[in-house]
Design a protein that fits this description.
This protein is of the alpha+beta class. The protein has helices at 6-25, 30-52, 58-67, 69-72, 75-87, 92-114, 137-159, 166-195, 204-207, 209-222, 234-237, 258-264, 268-271, 276-279, 283-286, 333-386, 394-428, 440-455, 475-493, 546-556, and strands spanning 119-124, 129-133, 243-247, 253-256, 294-299, 305-316, 322-331, 436-438, 459-465, 468-469, 471-473, 497-506, 509-516, 560-566, 570-578, 586-587. It contains 20 helices and 16 strands. The chain starts with 5 loop residues before the first helix and ends with a strand.
């Protein structure tokens, strides 16, 4: 055995070890898998070269040489695919070219193995075996060489521009050399010289180990490789609810976790290559450099803004050079909802105190005005009897009749004011009565029967009652809440529509949903629907206290009253009440 055989042998061992190390770092990143595949092909090529240079039968050698094409024939397509992945968001033409190159390499490999058109035969040399090529070899050589040259051009022009950090530029230079040197060596020793009748030791397979050496050097010196990015701690990031993205120096997303994908509404892979400022427009003025909990909005794939908090910090390599940023995006929708509820609760508390005082002050004059009007009506009846008779003037009869109508209308108005005062007092004192264990499904059934005249002529009712435990509540107050929500739903659907009433258990709470497909609530006023005296109805149709009182009743029961609405598509009011842990029974649907 000639000592030359040791060169491809040790090169194959080195390529195998580095490929295993790259895969051990991360198998989820496609770039890492492609680098490992390139090194695996190099190792396969090296080991076959060792084997055929130790054989004596030229037919076996010829077969092994042809089989080695499975190691070097796909290298052009693999290298091009690798740098398409590293670009992040390449053009559609580049992506379509990848499968075409793989298909062409597969066809050429099949012809190379099955026919003598690639390798016509072998010749004995003092170090092993030389090759005699067939008619398609120049075409195969040109295909592979052009693929690698295009890859080098992409690497030089698009992946490592002048604005790149020093460490990435150095890694880019080494990666460029690690691909170009094996290309030149293989072109000369394995192709051009043998084609011209000059047989020399083949060094193409061994030189491919430079790619692995470039990756190993980058990881040891800088802690990461631009060619094989590594895992970005995928195992940890996948479990985080917050969105996390590794950004390049220019703010382009290199890797994103599942949390950011869920927040935006797309797969994390689709975010690679996009600028973070495209998702968060406010960062165009703020920048991405060391942001501390800045609240702004992120744009989802559907184009809807979502409130978020953004933080960022620089990423540095082992030499201390800044190579990018880590951005953490936290969903603030729940926080925003809590803030709205807190603001509503604050307004409720303030209005409740004000309402109690106003109701007390108004109640006294309303009482004596009502009493005086009742007394006035009795006196008027007395006057009317005194002037009754056949000789009574017709004008006086009209005046007496009109005056009686005015008194009755005044009494109706006073009664309406008194009802409003009672509602205000109920609003300010809601929740102070005794409670009992009740079945919410039965309360809803009773309320639906009471409210049926409001909707049975123009709306269809859909019951979806689930099995829910009994709850501790004030039944009459909850009936008031349910009645108000059902009547509002009936008014919202108009002349025709559907109302859905559903109950179910969510964790340790009973949930009641009253949903309609009516007009919905405009986004501009949805935060005010629980404000006292706010109403979207016309004058005289509502006081604006129904939802405010309902909200306060539910809050005093330790629950939540929430609304979701879309104009033109309907609204859903959701009452959430804590389940009484002492209740031993479950309400039947």
């Amino acid at each position: 055995m000639h000592p030359f055989v040791l060169i491809p042998f040790f090169a194959g061992v080195a390529a195998s070890v580095i490929a295993s190390a790259v895969l051990a770092r991360n198998t989820a990143q496609r770039a890492d898998r492609l680098v490992a595949t390139i090194l695996g092909c190099a190792a396969y090529w090296c080991f076959l070269e060792v084997i055929w240079n130790t054989q004596d039968d030229p037919r076996v050698v010829t077969w092994l040489v042809r089989a080695s094409s499975l190691g070097w024939m796909p290298l052009g397509a693999l290298c091009f695919h690798l740098f398409v992945e590293l670009i992040g968001r390449p053009s559609a033409r580049m992506r379509r070219l990848v499968p075409a190159l793989y298909a062409l390499a597969g066809v050429c490999s099949a012809l190379y193995i099955a026919t003598p058109w690639g390798v016509a035969g072998v010749v004995r040399t003092n170090w092993g075996w030389g090759l005699e090529f067939g008619p398609i070899f120049p075409f195969v050589l040109t295909l592979t060489t052009v693929s690698v040259v295009v890859t080098l051009a992409v690497l030089w022009r698009r992946v490592y521009p002048r604005g790149a950090p020093p460490s990435e530029r150095r890694q880019g230079y080494f990666a460029f050399a690690a691909i170009s040197i094996p290309t030149v060596v293989a072109f000369l020793s394995d192709a051009l010289l043998p084609l011209n009748g000059i047989q020399m030791p083949r060094l193409g397979s061994a030189s491919l180990t430079l790619i692995g050496a470039s990756v190993a050097w980058s990881v040891l010196r800088y802690g990461y490789s631009i060619v094989a990015p590594g895992s970005l701690a995928n195992e940890i990031l996948a479990t985080l609810r917050e969105g996390v993205a590794l950004l390049r120096y220019d703010g382009v997303i290199r890797v994103a976790n599942g949390g950011l994908g869920r927040l935006v509404g797309c797969r994390p892979k689709e975010l690679t290559g996009r600028s973070l400022t495209d998702l968060i427009p406010a960062l165009r003025t703020l920048g991405v450099e060391e942001i501390q909990e800045r609240e702004c909005e992120i744009t989802t794939a559907a184009g809807r803004p979502v409130p978020v908090a953004v933080s960022s910090s620089p990423v540095r390599d082992r030499q201390g050079n800044r190579v990018g940023w880590v951005a953490v995006v936290r969903d603030l929708r729940e926080v925003a909802a809590l803030r709205r509820n807190l603001a509503i609760s604050g307004r409720m508390a303030a209005v409740g105190e004000l309402a109690a005082g106003i109701a007390h002050e108004i109640n006294n004059p309303i009482a004596f005005i009502q009493s005086n009007l009742l007394q006035l009506r009795e006196h008027w009846h007395t006057v009317e009897k005194l002037h009754a008779g056949p000789a009574q003037d017709a004008r006086l009869t009209d005046i007496l009749s009109e005056a009686e109508e005015l008194v009755d209308e005044s009494l109706d108005g006073v009664e309406r004011v008194a009802a409003i005062v009672r509602d205000v007092r109920g609003f300010s004192h809601a929740g102070h009565r005794e409670r009992e264990i009740a079945d919410l499904n039965e309360l809803l059934d009773s309320t639906l029967r009471l409210a049926s005249p409001q909707f049975r002529q123009h709306a269809t009712l859909k019951r979806e009652f689930g099995e829910i435990p009994l709850v501790s509540c004030n039944p009459q107050q909850l009936k008031q809440v349910f009645l108000n929500l059902i009547v509002n739903a009936a008014h919202a659907v108009g002349d025709s529509g559907a109302i859905r009433v559903a109950t179910y258990v969510e964790r340790d709470h009973a949930v009641i949903e009253i949903e309609d497909d009516g007009c919905g609530i405009p986004e501009a006023v949805i935060d005010r629907v629980f404000d006292p005296f706010f109403t979207t109805k016309t004058v005289g149709e509502g006081t604006g206290l129904g939802l405010a009182i309902s909200y306060q009743i539910v809050r005093n029961h330790g629950g939540e009253l929430q609304v979701e609405s879309e104009p033109g598509r309907g609204s859903c009011f959701r009452v959430t009440l804590p389940i009484d842990t002492n209740g031993a029974e479950t309400a039947d649907p």
